[in-house]
Amino acid sequence: MSSYSRVIHHATSILCSHKGSMDLSQLYRKVYQRFDISDEHFWYILKKCPRFAMVRNRPSAEKDVTDFIVVAKTSLRLCKSYTKQDCFGCQDLHLCKYFVYGNCRYGKGRKECKFSHNIQSEHNFPLLRECTLHELHEDDLFLLLLQNDPALLPEVCSHYNKGSGLFGACTFKENCTKVHMCQHFVQDNCIFGPKCKRLHCVDEYGRRMLEERGLGMDVIQDLPYLYQNVYRLSASATDAERISEPVSRSLELSEEKNEICLHFIRRNCRFQEQCKLVHFNLPYKWEVNEGNGWRDLQGMEEIERAFCDPKNTFGPGSRPVDFQTMTRSGHPVRRLSTVSSITKPSHYVLTTHWLWYYKGDHDNWIEYGRPDDKHRVTSVKSCDLEEMFLTDNKAKVTVLKGNRHYYVSFEDMYQRNPKHNTKRKVRRRPCFVSISEVESQIV
């Protein structure tokens, strides 16, 4: 969904600023004010992107775009072991729970909280970036977490919703540690509306209890909406199979998976079958399409070993892969890989470490940043070029070596001397990782 990333971010911000959910048609009108996007494409984004869940506003209604509610969704959670100081390198956020509640007492005084209040920390920011939530406003992020993380909100009292009387069948009455609220209101199907004898908001007893548990006033006021969204998210799983609209075949085909899931290799992908990335046990995957779809190539490790050496233009075997045209016997070949190492912190393992080379004077290949046979070193290294390449893969970059300067063109993969108008080939190849090395890094 990378081509729609700005639309997804904007739609998420709109939802969070509207208590976490919104009528589909209203959301579309808001998004359309900034982005010229067709309703078909917008529907496609909502259906395909895991950031959004759709539920029917009225289950008995016929299919119609105005009958859906869109709810903001995330798989991110607060780490339960963080406050016990018993967590190292997990995939959950390390944040003070009361900071998320908006009511950390240490955040208001001189004494500093011993738990993080920094969503941009070295641990948290990569997780937010991976979920493309790093640009979301702090308040919007917290609302998103509250309605998606079941551990953050107290339960609605089921006994309160039984029997008669002020407290229903709840024997704890005003001392109950659960929230007294109409269950049908939470499920958005209370037929009594404002005349209902059950609460549709948090009363004084509930407010005091929630404040004692550390919830801030803004969160307490938003609780009715949050509970409704929690219910909608649970209902969306069963609704998902029934919600279907025609989507153009061309759009479906454009969403082919081409990145290998890092978490699956490390055996901890929380999305499982719903993951939008490729699940494979290596950080690279070679495939050929001979007319019946993509299938794995045999001898994948040896093909990868050959490809990682910049001098090679062909792979091994009697029917070698042509690395220049990415074909084998005329059939298209592709290499899938994990995300570039430049986009992740250094402690992330099994990312793809790309190296950049230029052709030397003796048909040898020299990595950028390494000395040539005359001990001259370029002004940029592989990591610099990789970062610039990921920013703009059609850019031209100035490189200095000694008292000469060159232009590296990412588009045609040449290094050009502007004074003499001579060119050298440039190649971007990954650092080789064997199967045994992969296994040793995930133990």
TrEMBL record:
Zinc finger (C3H1-type) boundaries: 95-120, 181-203, 255-282
Protein family (similarity comment): Belongs to the ARTD/PARP family.
Cellular localization per UniProt: Cytoplasm; Nucleus
One Pfam family from the record: WWE
Designated name of the protein: Poly (ADP-ribose) polymerase family, member 12b
Keyword Secreted: no
Xref: PANTHER family: POLY (ADP-RIBOSE) POLYMERASE FAMILY, MEMBER 12B, POLY [ADP-RIBOSE] POLYMERASE
GO molecular function: NAD+ poly-ADP-ribosyltransferase activity; NAD+-protein mono-ADP-ribosyltransferase activity; zinc ion binding
PROSITE patterns: WWE, ZF_C3H1
GO CC aspect terms: cytoplasm; nucleus
Sequence ranges assigned to domain C3H1-type in this UniProt record: 95-120, 181-203, 255-282
Alphabetically ordered keywords of this record: Cytoplasm, Metal-binding, Nucleus, Phosphoprotein, Repeat, Zinc, Zinc-finger
WWE domain location: 341-428
